[in-house]
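During the reporting period, our protein records have gained a structure token line. One record among many is quoted in full directly below:
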Amino acid sequence: MEIIKLDPHQIHQASNVLSASFFDYPMFTFYFPDPKRRTRCLPWYFRNILNCALHYGEAYTNPDISGVIFTLPPGHTKISIWEYILNGFLLTPFMLGFRNYKQSMDCESFVGDTQEKLMKNRLHYYLWGLAVEPSQKARGIGTALMLPVLAKADAQKIPVYLETHDEKNVQYYQKHGFNLIHNVRIPKYELPIWCMLREPI
């Protein structure tokens, strides 16, 4: 399967794939409890996320854009608030509502701090997101998207870190060499995260 770099003009279609794939993802059902609001907000959210990924990391897809993967590089595995704002997140408090915005900021801060605590300044790639159009799952698209990322990290002898809010994803990533290194619930909100690391081969 051919894997290509995501072009900026493909962001709209890629964000729709991400929105469909992550529609019932625990983090987003928490951020956007109302399904109608989630339907409206997720494409906007993922367009901005992909803007960040293209500016500070890398994003890949396949020719029919049925899958997307995006990563951040060693030394820049955390996006600052200013970088988020520069890439479209200025209106986040209005899109989420101020209460949900405060909750999301608490969660994002905890997730980022957890990554820093676990990796202890060790250089690593951050597998920020991987998604496949729901109708195209179980066809090897996710694996095909991940292999170049893992090969690049292996060539540089650098580990790859990720976290997931969905326990079902743990076994999937374990099949690709990731090990579960931490499981914790975000304080106040009891939202679980599973942190995983793949050492270079």
User: Anything to note?
Assistant: The chain has one domain: 4-198. Residues 69 and 130 are 4 Å apart (CA to CA). The domain at 4-198 is CATH 3.40.630.30 (Aminopeptidase). The radius of gyration is 16 Å.
